[in-house]
Amino acid sequence: MSTKLFINPSALEAGVEAAFEARSEPSEAQAAAFQRFAKLRLPHRRIEGWKWSDFNAALRNFTPINEDPGAIAISPTDFSALNPIEFRIVDGRIQLPEEEMPDGMRYGVIDPVATITELETHGIATLNVAITRKALGIEILEDAAPERPILIRHINSAAGFSFAQTMMRVSSNAKAKLIETYEGEGAGFYSHLFHMVVRDGATFNRTVLHETGTENIVHSICAAKIDEAARFEQTSLSTGSRLSRHETILHFWSPGSTAKINSAALLGGACHNDFTTHVLHKERGCETRQLHKGVATDRGRNVFQGKFEVERAAQKTDAKMTANALLLSDMAEANHKPELEIYADDVECAHGSTSGALDKDALFYLRQRGLSEKQARTLLIEAFVGAVIDEVEDDGVRNVLRAKTLDWLEAV
Fold first, then answer.
1. 10 Å Cβ neighbour count for 219?
2. Nearest Cα to 290, choosing from 329, 338, 244?
3. Given pLDDT bands bounded at 50, 70 and 90, which one contains residue 341?
């Protein structure tokens, strides 16, 4: 293909073009995706949905990660005590578990997804589709319910950029628990595209913990299609980084399904985190609950964008969204954008958003009962974020998230 797709390319654009041209046999779909990216380019603040998270400005000087960075030391995570089935994606390279495949589950390294129609106008998603060489594939078989959780560790150890994909199917009447961690002290950019389907009567529970180094840049998308009478639950906790954005795109394709999407951000220093969601209700009788809690101090920046879209056929939809932010310093920011787009007339949909400082009366009340100012602030913030963490059903996962919250509070 031509090497002149970009006019005045940034280092990242020149790098991804060189990386794409170095591939031996990219598919026609991937070539088309790269052509789309060349027109779209990286999202920037002049695009409405990206005005608070400018990836174009942040990524101008990024180049590819070395093809052979060598072995790196990887320590166990706090989730290791849960005896998970552990996968690792290190600087975009997939590492499978060194154990026998559990009953009711299949996995392997597969060809990446060639295109996702609803993401063809998404600059980072089209770049991921064009560049990713291999994907992690996971399937939970019909009626299976593995007791052990699945753990995917996204580890960014270097500078430069890397891309990865995961594709997952939770088959009919199956149950699956997934934990994803974003880790590493590298100063690189990592893009992950997670495409999945939750089939009829299945239950899928996903936990995301983002705690990378402060110079890391991360973008992730979880795009899920939910079938009839299925259940999707997700809880995310992020301490941010230089720039991080985690997107969740849910499509209710069949009636009678439910989703719960909760998130919390704990941001200090100059960390930036963006939780963006889009839930599309296409069929009747589905329910969505969404709760976001953001805490920012110093120059931390908390971004939340949530959209519920209800098509005309999706009568009897019940969808509620709430976003609350605590600002603990004059320089901290909270940017919220809740949206409803409704074309059905027999629905119950609502959204709400608040931001403010800690309640002075509550602080005074606790101080009067013998607590120090730091203890009082910690107790109030823990309770604020606890509204999200307490919703986690698994005791082990909930305890890890609670401990991470307390660790952050001790440090601020």
1. 25
2. 338
3. very high
Q: What angle do CA 313, 316, 319 make, to 5 degrees?
A: 105
* pLDDT reported for residue 224: 97
Classify residue 351 as exposed, middle or buried by CB count within 10 Å of its CB (0-12, 13-18, 19+): middle
**Alpha carbons 321 and 290: distance in angstroms, whole number:** 5
Residue with tokens 């980072």: 124
Give the residue carrying structure tokens 């991921």.
128
pTM exceeds 0.90: yes
Q: Rounded distance, CA 139 to CA 168, Å?
A: 6
> Which 3-state string (H, E, C) describes 235-302?
EEEECCECEEEEEEEEEECCCCCEEEEEEEEEECCCCEEEEEEEEEECCCCCEEEEEEEEEECCCCEE
What are the phi and psi torsion angles at 241 (to 5°)? Answer: -165, -160
Q: State pLDDT tens for residues 375-402.
A: 999 999 999 999 999 999 999 999 999 9
Beta-carbon contacts of 412 under 8 Å, excluding residues fewer than 6 positions away, are 268, 297, 328
Q: Please name the helix (run of DSSP H) or strand (run of DSSP E) that holds residue 170, with its range, or none.
A: strand 161-170
